Amino acid sequence: MSRSNSLNGKVAIVTGAGRGIGLEVVRLLGERQVKVLCADIDIGSAEAAAAGVRDGGGEAAAVACDVGKSADVSKLVDAAGETFGKLDLAFNNAGILGPMGTPLDKVDEADWDRTLSINLSSVFYCLKYQVPAMLNAGGGAIVNAASVAGLIAAPRNPVYGATKHAVVGLTRSAAMQYADRGIRINAVCPGIVETGFSNSEVRQEGLPTFPPPFIPMQRFGTPEEIARLVVWLLSDEASYLTGEAVGADGGWRHM
Ligand code: NAD
């Protein structure tokens, strides 16, 4: 069965593109003929991600960007226009785990500030600069990376949980502001996904690697399972969804 590809020729920004879920989204967008600007604080990994798309016959470029810095994000959005002429899509994905396993009364205030900056202020900066660029392009679609920890309690990491709840709230409200101007804004809320990020969580907390008893599917997710959802949300196949926080957690939050 052949299906039309609504993403063909679109221009996307992916933050945290160098590895994990972001890298998988870059790969799938490249396969769908999207021109991808790969942003990461680790420029070497962003360059490798972009090279992967070009090796497959697609178009991609890399930009060094610390999403916790407004000026970097502003330059990133400018680079989409300069490199590919417009901006249609964004996956605002870069994030950190923060002070995992630390009771709140022991959390260092600098860790609180850093986690809020990279997980939450970053999404504000991205929306602030991406929305005008997308309005110029006649509309667009944005997906923000939240987490199951944005929907239910995160007792092992309340700082992380606070940032992801805030990303869900920001996503919903921003979606309402631009719903009638052709920009859809949604969030994905993964459970534990097999990436470097979750491996550090498992190491630090001694969580069982398998089987995880709190996950009804009895396994972790893969980056590709999350990436397929993200690409679907960015595509016209999700044309009537906005303000959603879509879970992908093997059933965890329904336990
Ligand atoms: P990862 O650690 O494997 O990759 C994150 C990428 O972001 C890396 O390439 C890193 O260099 C980059 N990055 C880190 N700080 C940055 C900064 N300040 N500016 C720009 N880039 C930066 O992470 P992942 O597992 O792929 O997670 C991606 C997103 O998904 C995060 O927002 C995370 O909170 C969320 N998430 C992950 C899981 C999971 O289990 N892996 C679960 C739920 C939500």
Which spans of ≥5 residues are poorly predicted at pLDDT below 50? none
Largest sheet: 7 strands, parallel
Main sheet strand line-up: 3-2-1-4-5-6-7
* Count of distinct strands: 7
Label the structural class. alpha/beta
Mean pLDDT: 94
Write down the Rg. Answer: 17 Å
Order of helices and strands: EHEHEHEHEHEHHE
Sheet-strand content, in percent, reads 5-15%
Total number of helices: 7
- Ligands bound to this protein structure: nicotinamide-adenine-dinucleotide
As a percent range, the share of helical residues equals 40-55%
Overall 3D form: globular
State the distance separating the first and last CA atoms: 37 Å
In short:
The chain is built from 7 helices and 7 strands, in the order βαβαβαβαβαβααβ.
Characterise the protein shown here.
The chain is of the alpha/beta class and 255 residues long. Helices cover 44% and strands 15% of the residues.
Topology, please?
Blueprint: E1 11-15, H1 20-31, E2 35-40, H2 43-55, E3 60-64, H3 70-84, E4 89-92, H4 109-136, E5 140-145, H5 158-178, E6 183-190, H6 196-205, H7 223-234, E7 245-248
Parallel strand pairs: 1-2, 1-4, 2-3, 4-5, 5-6, 6-7
Helix pairs in contact: 1-2, 1-7, 3-4, 4-5
The protein binds nicotinamide-adenine-dinucleotide.
Features:
255 residues, 7 helices, 7 strands, binds nicotinamide-adenine-dinucleotide, alpha/beta
